[in-house]
Amino acid sequence: MKRIGVTGHRAIPGEVLGHVREALHSVLGGHQGPLEAFSSLADGADQLFADIALEHGADLTVVIPSGDYEDTFEDPDALAGYRRLRRRAAQEVLMAFDRSTDEAYYAAGTYIADSCDRLVAVWDGLPARGHGGTAEIVAYARALGKPVTVIWREGVTRD
After folding, report:
1. First to last CA, the chain
2. Do the strands 2-8 and 118-122 form a parallel or antiparallel pair, or are they unpaired?
């Protein structure tokens, strides 16, 4: 079984969203055989990846950073997306953190990187804005020798 994980930005600017969606379809649809997709289901890249993975028949493994993770969703639509995707998961991994902290996010991101054969990063190439951010997880995966597919459009910056 092929295993693909995701790390990425919560905010994806409109001018890059179509490109990201198309690239995720290409990555997730361009394999043979069973697929397992790993995501923490954060708003943005994580939920988009999970939705597209499920469209391509993947088994979804949800990696939840902490016991209070649902409380971190400020947007009701993002929370509804999280709950919907979580119900569709084939497997769930809960990290051993009661509270959502940078350390919990880092643990979830490194768990995904450790568990996958390839990491997809919806990433603008800039440094992480906090411990456990996209750039840090990309660096971690690369240090493990994992292939990383970066999806973004040059010249587009996020807010």
Report:
1. 37
2. parallel
Supply the DSSP string of 125-150, one letter for each residue. SPPPSSTT-HHHHHHHHHHTT--EEE
pLDDT at res. 129: 83
Residue 58 placed within a domain: yes
* pLDDT, position 72: 95
Helix/strand/coil for 21: helix
Short-list 37, 13, 14, 15, CA closest to 25: 37
pLDDT one-digit tens code per residue, 112-121:
999 999 999 9
Residue 75: CATH number of its domain: 3.40.50.450
* Contacts (Cβ under 8 Å, ≥6 apart) of 123: 7, 8, 9, 134, 135, 138, 150, 151, 152
Give a yes or no: residue 113 inside a domain.
yes
Q: Is residue 158 part of a domain?
A: no
Q: Which residues of the chain have pLDDT under 70?
A: none
Q: What is the pTM (predicted TM-score) of this model?
A: 0.95
Tokens 């996958």 belong to: 116
Secondary structure (3-state) at 122: strand
